[in-house]
Amino acid sequence: MACCLSFVLLGEAKIYKHPKADTLYLTIPSKVVQDSTFIFKKGDTVKIRYDPEKKILIVEPLNTKAKQKK
After folding, report:
1. DSSP codes of every residue in the chain
2. Of 16, 62, 24, 23, which Cα lies nearest the Cα of 43?
3. Ramachandran angles phi, psi of 45, nearest 5°
4. For the range 52-60, what are the long-range contacts, defined as Cβ-Cβ under 8 Å and sequence gap of 24 or more?
5. Domain 15-69: top CATH class
6. Which of 28, 32, 44, 60 could form a disulfide linkage to 11, CB 3.0–4.6 angstroms apart?
């Protein structure tokens, strides 16, 4: 049996390139950010990795244990 992820909200995002660096910026639509299940807040530090087999970008919270102590 295949397992599927349940997404509350979906949105399209754009990737922008910094004009003076090799840095890329990913925008997250407000309808996704405003959803109560969205876990990231302004100023959070995240871990980003790319899975070349699945061709997906994975964004995970960094230091989740430190956040729980606060």
Report:
1. -------S------EEE-TTSS-EEE---HHHHTSTT----TT--EEEEEETTTTEEEEEES-HHHHHH-
2. 62
3. -100, 135
4. 57/26
5. mainly beta
6. 32
Q: Extract the tokens encoding 48.
A: 């980003």
Whole-structure pTM value: 0.64
Q: Are strands 24-26 and 46-51 parallel, antiparallel or unpaired?
A: unpaired
Q: Angle at Cα 50 formed by Cα 44 and Cα 52, nearest 5°?
A: 170
**Amino acid identity, position 21:** A
Phi, psi of 16 (to 5 degrees): -115, 150
Phi and psi for 6 in degrees, rounded to 5?
Answer: -100, 120
pLDDT, one tens digit per residue, over 19-65 is: 999 999 999 999 899 888 899 999 999 999 999 999 999 999 997 55
